[in-house]
Each structure stands twice: as C-alpha cells, then as structure tokens.
Amino acid sequence: MQAVLNITAPIFFIIFLGYVSVRYRLIPKEMLPGLSRFVLYVALPALIFIKVSSMPIDQLFYPAYLIIYGVGSICALFTGVLISRYVFKDTLGVSGVRGMGSALSNSSFIGFPILLQFFDHAPTQAFAMTVMIENILILPIALIFVEYAFGRSEQASIKAQWQGILKRVSTNPIIISVFAGVFFSVLGLSLPAFMDVGLNLLASGAAAAALIVIGGSLVGVSIKGSYSRIGSVSLAKLVIHPLWVLVLIQFFPSMPNDLKMAAILFAAMPMFSIYPILGGEYGQREFCASALLVTTLFSFISVSALIHIYS
C-alpha cells in the first residue's frame, strides 16, 4: 500500500497545496484562468510534442486502444444518460449533461501526472490517443446529444453545430501538439538544440501547474443539489467508466499491458475540469460543480484502490 501512496499521494498533495494557496490568497483566484491557459496552451503541448516527436510512428497509434477507449467512453456516456433518465426521472437534456460527466475524464490535468508517476517510462502515446478520442469523438457526441435533447437544433443547423465542433477541435493546442509531434516523427525531423532545451524546461512544469489549477479551482465550490444524483454521476465516472474499458480490454488480450493499464487509469479519472462551464450552458452549473468536487475528492480513494489492485 505504501507503494500506491507514493504514486497517488504526491498528486493529491499538490492539489491540496493549490487549494490552500488560493484559499488563503497566496495565489489570487483571478490568476487561475491565466495559469490554466499556460498549462493548456504552453506547458502540456510542449511536453506532448517532445514525447510524441521522439517516438517511432508505429508506436504512436494502436488501433485496439482507440477502439477500447472510444467504445468504453461512449458506453459510459449512455450509461450515465440511462441512469439519470430512468432511475431519477430527469429530462433527456439533463440526463445528457449527467452522461457527459460520466464519460469525459480529466486526462490532461490529473490523468497524465498520475501516468507519469505510475510508469517508469510513461506510455505517452496512450495520453495522445486518449486526448484525440475525447476531443474528436466523445465530446462532440455528448454536445450534439445534449443540444438536440434541449431542442437547440431548431435554432442552429447541423452544419453550424459541426462547424463549431470542428473549430473547437482544430484550435485545441493539445490536439495540435499531437499532430505536430506526429509530423516530426514521420519525417524524422528534430528541433534546434536551444528550442529542444526550452521546450523541456516548459514541459517540466506542466504536471505541477496543472494540479495547482485543479486544487485552486475547488475553492468556493460547495455541494448543492441531490446527493443521490451527484453520487450516481461520481459512481459512473470513477467506477462504471473504467469497468466498461476493462470489459472491452478482454477482447484484445494481445494489447501491451502498459496500454491496458493506461486506458483503465484514464477512464478512472474524475471528470474534466470545464464540466461546470459546459453544464452552465444548460442551467446545470451548480450541479456540475458539485459533482466535480465530490468526484475529485473521492478519486483519491478510487484511483489508489485501482493502482493497488493492478500493481
């Protein structure tokens, strides 16, 4: 168990430091959006580019992983929708928002730092594939489902919706860094030494800065709404999502063990940090913020248990 805590405790300790720093104004909360943008637009892309560009192209994409994580996430999405719709009798639109929280992981800010801690040589290609699946497949499906459920399709054409999604994906700096890394890998290119050293310096701060943002973002968030509904979304995200992935892994026994474990770990992460922002578009901001808080707190236990089982 000590070995497990050596992996998870540092992650959640930094999250706690982020919370304390913002709670007592050592870091003004107004700085969090800027720090978050630094992580998403500079530090994480630098880290991903360095890792991906140094890999042989045949190691970057593993079709079985894409199928497992993609199908598992879609199953988790609609499991969350069905629980909300038929157990709690929520509207279809609200159920869609609940399903979104059940299927989209915080792979960048929490998942990747844990991946770096868990593996001696982290399978960065797993993170790259996870980010692509989440942004190119799962998030668009979830948003389109919710839009139609709330009847907004009457106000916006299908073409306009897809244009918005395409713009969101094509301007995502993490997606851009993945494809830039693939481009360099395919052509065998390398950066000048001063740029390589500079990007490595930026990359070294990515994980810690991301965790500080997560902790600081929890300041001021309180639990509001039905505890049973919040609990069901947390359970779907932390337990049902990785269970779907685990079931699908059984159909691909030859997939490398590190990729299997990476897929389960990413699925077991709490929901993505912009969940309250997206939920706020449909009148669900308070619920989504509460679910994010509860799921993030309980993920320390669930992720530690998962690592203990598979260590």
TrEMBL record:
Stored InterPro entries: Mem_transp_PIN-like
GO cellular component annotations of the record: membrane
Places the protein is found: Membrane
Residues in coiled coil: none
Superkingdom classification of source: Bacteria
Transmembrane segments: 6-26, 38-57, 63-88, 100-119, 125-150, 171-195, 201-223, 235-253, 259-278, 290-310
BP GO terms, sorted: transmembrane transport
Topology class, membrane: Multi-pass membrane protein
Keyword terms, alphabetized: Cell membrane, Membrane, Transmembrane, Transmembrane helix, Transport
Pfam families assigned to the protein according to its UniProt record, in alphabetical order: Mem_trans
The name this protein goes by in its record: AEC family transporter
Organism of this sequence: Nitrincola tibetensis
